[in-house]
Amino acid sequence: MSPATTRRIDDFDIVAFDADDTLWKSEDGFQATEARFAELVAPFAPVGIDVLDALHATEKTDIASQGYGVKAFTLSMVRAAIAMTDGAVSTEVVREIVDLGAAMLVEPVHLLPDVPEVLERVGRHARLVLITKGDLVHQTRKVTTSGLEHHFTDIEIVLEKDPPIYAKLLDRFGVAPERFCMVGNSVRSDVVPVMALGGHAVHVPYHLTWELERVDDHTEDVVTLDRLADLPAWLGLD
Fold this sequence. Notes:
Elements: E1 14-17, H1 27-41, H2 51-66, H3 70-84, H4 91-105, H5 115-123, E2 127-133, H6 136-146, E3 154-158, H7 163-173, E4 180-184, H8 187-196, E5 200-203, E6 223-224, H9 231-234
Parallel strand pairs: 1-2, 1-4, 2-3, 4-5, 5-6
Helix pairs in contact: 1-4, 2-3, 3-4
């Protein structure tokens, strides 16, 4: 095959996809819940307290012990509400915070545009895997109810997305880093750690980014696509 007709897809044995905010909506629900949390807790907080900043600080601290996902987020909301109000927050507010989290756990999966078509197209030419982090039960529910599970040979729900975790996954998949491409909305979780191993990554930004996923100081030359529908063309499949 001549250089002019070489397809980028031929460079990869595996194309992996993130899930939340790459295949389906996620951050929208978290931010809507955060907004309601602020409305509920602000009346009990001392003047001058930034309620959402306090919540994000609690989340950051809690990740080490609670991990990611709605259940961890809900517990962080309860802890933050009690801490920032010095226990003044009412039991009615705490109950509503818990109910907000419970509602998020049963929210239907809302696929992003063109997702099934892109997976079908790319999956004809490479092995597809899904790599997401979060709560095992909730993420499994989203995968199984999304209608997308059949596209993937492997579905990995991990505690973190860092170079050691990706290295273990690549070893399990039996693929060299240079033959692996990760596609996702988070530079912090889907791009930087994969490139650190010598792998390839494609950033497909979502219009919302979780505060703790933002990265402003990376030096990697990141491939960015405006939308997932552009991935087949980038892979040379058009």
